[in-house]
Automatic annotation (TrEMBL):
This is D-3-phosphoglycerate dehydrogenase. It holds the Pfam family PGDH_inter. It comes from Geomonas anaerohicana. Keywords: Amino-acid biosynthesis, NAD, Oxidoreductase, Serine biosynthesis. Belongs to the D-isomer specific 2-hydroxyacid dehydrogenase family. It catalyses: (R)-2-hydroxyglutarate + NAD(+) = 2-oxoglutarate + NADH + H(+); (2R)-3-phosphoglycerate + NAD(+) = 3-phosphooxypyruvate + NADH + H(+).
Length: 532
């Protein structure tokens, strides 16, 4: 295995590879593009950081390249899509800075509580003052951790060591994860209302953007302390500034900003606020973290060489061609089923079961299971999940994954059922392939038969005359066209379930209008990426 290293990477990581007799490594730093193009065709692996752009021209010259190893979190300098098209695996090291980020969050919290930055400036300025810098203890306080992933979990552990009572909020992990950490899993509202300290450790997504704004800050306890060492934009910075000015929030400590470097007037005022402790995105900026990311990518390369599962692959390596030909229609089906059912689940995931019935059960269904698991988890976690690392991600989240097979099937020659179980909740969906097209044939205990589309609306309600007409009237009023409708019910005037295929998405206010008009017990707009 020939490896070229084109950027500065910690020697501790390179040494792991250099000890392997299968590896021939060349360290060539500072190469010009033309120089790199002329030699890259000789290498199987390239190890980079941010200094090398792995783009289409480089990949076109890299005729033997099998793996791009980015010794760090970001892959902005790698054309992942084109690498995938070329069959090149891209790996990174998203968790090499986990401990550094957790420790920095604690450093920010302690610096604020004990007035470290203010006292430091005062003493260096020649003053000997103690009274102005009276601080707070952590012992006995209630701390809320929003996001209980690798970083949030470490922060929770450290807060417990300081004798805090720790509450945690994370809808995307199993209850076992919280139990193992010795923290109480609660809702976001409970964190907001009950905690003296709140620290966020989630990715920045459409769901978490401005997750803490004016409404949430107003509902917090007087004198709350807020820490953000995750991503800028999770906490609304203008609302944060107002809460500090009003005295509702005793103080805050931020390492990350919605704009980096910060340039807006709001950010400048927030950074300069006397109740703020601030740092310029230093969470991963430790010597140890740089070593960790180098070691992590080195281990990924060894896993690839040993044909072992790769934990942090950004894209999906290809299956054996014969296996793919056999499984391709069902890989598409399981993606659709997963994409559909995960949008119906609001609780933590404890168990996921993939059931195969009919002739399909005679074969190795592992590729289908892993593909479906990746589709489910990609809606729930920060890192990119694929068929290589899906099971590892599920294991880390404490999710039990089971595969059940039965060659006996009364209804269809082949059928896949995905069942998701969480606290007090169970969702089930079944599907088959008809003339190469996915069909959903069962939802919960309702027999259905419809082709999944990009935009859909699912309702459950008490069966009575006129309901379908009301739904159609409301959607028509808002110029949302119904392409198809499928109705399921157990008995006359019992509970009914209807699934509508639509030409466009249903806005939230229209969903609420439909809910009110139908007294729906459940209503959910669905957006199926896999059906586009």
């Amino acid at each position: 295995m020939k490896i070229i290293v084109t950027d500065e990477v910690a020697q501790e990581g390179l040494a792991i590879l250099q000890r392997d007799p299968r590896v021939q490594m060349d360290i060539k730093l500072g190469l010009k593009k033309e120089e790199l193009y002329s030699i890259i065709g000789d290498y199987d692996v390239i190890i980079t950081r941010s200094g090398t752009t792995v783009d289409k021209p480089l990949l076109d010259h890299a005729t033997n390249l099998k793996l791009v190893a980015r010794a760090g979190v970001g892959v902005d300098n790698v054309d992942v899509d084109y690498a995938s098209a070329k069959g090149v695996i891209v790996v990174n090291a998203p968790f090499g800075n986990t401990n550094s980020a957790a420790e920095h969050a604690m450093a920010l919290l302690l610096s604020f509580c004990r007035n470290v930055t203010k006292a430091n400036g005062s003493l260096k300025g020649g003053a000997w003052k103690r009274a102005p810098f009276t601080g707070y203890e952590l012992k006995g306080r209630t701390a809320g951790v929003i996001g209980l992933g690798k970083v949030g979990g470490r922060v929770a552990t450290r807060l417990k060591a300081f004798e805090c009572e720790v509450l945690a909020c994370d809808p995307y992990i199993a209850e076992k994860r919280a139990h193992d950490l010795g923290v109480k899993l609660v809702t976001l509202d409970e964190i907001i209302k009950n905690c003296d300290i709140i620290t966020v450790h989630t990715p920045l997504t459409s769901e978490t953007h401005n997750m803490i704004g004016k409404k949430e800050l107003a509902a917090m306890k007087d004198g709350v302390i807020i820490i953000n060492a995750a991503r800028g934009g999770i906490i609304n910075e203008e609302a944060m500034l107002e809460a500090l000015d009003s005295g509702r929030v005793a103080g805050a400590a931020f390492d990350v900003w919605s704009q980096e470097p910060p340039d807006s007037e709001i950010l400048k005022k927030l950074i300069g606020h006397e109740k703020m402790v601030v740092t310029p995105h230093l969470g991963a900026n430790t010597f140890e973290a740089q070593v960790n990311v180098a070691v992590d990518v080195a281990k990924e390369i060894l896993r690839y060489m040993d044909e072992q599962p790769i934990e942090n692959a950004i894209n999906i390596p290809k299956f054996d061609a014969s296996l793919m030909g056999q499984m391709r229609p069902y890989l598409n089906l399981v993606n659709v089923l997963a994409d559909f059912i995960i949008q119906l689940v609001d609780t933590n995931l404890n168990k996921i079961t993939f059931t195969y019935t009919g002739g399909l059960a005679q074969y190795d269904c592992t590729p289908i299971t892993v593909c479906g698991l990746a589709s489910l988890l990609n809606r729930r976690v920060e890192q990119e999940v694929n068929m290589v690392n899906a099971q590892l991600v599920a294991d880390n989240m404490g999710i039990v994954v089971e595969e059940v097979k039965s060659t006996h099937s009364e209804d269809f020659s082949n059928m896949i059922t995905v069942t998701i179980e969480g606290p007090g909740e169970k969702r089930l969906i079944s599907g088959t392939v008809f003339e190469g097209v996915p069909r959903i044939v069962k939802l919960r205990d309702y027999q259905m038969d419809f082709r999944p589309e990009e935009h859909m609306l699912l309702l459950a309600y008490g069966d009575r005359p006129g309901i379908i007409g009301k739904i159609g009237t409301i959607l028509g009023k808002h110029e949302i066209n119904i392409a198809a409708m499928n109705l399921g019910r157990r008995e006359k005037k019992g509970e009914a379930m209807v699934i509508l295929s639509l030409d466009s998405a249903v806005p939230a206010d229209v969903v609420e209008e439909v809910r009110a008009a139908t007294d729906a017990t459940f209503v959910k707009p669905l957006y199926l990426i896999t059906a586009k």
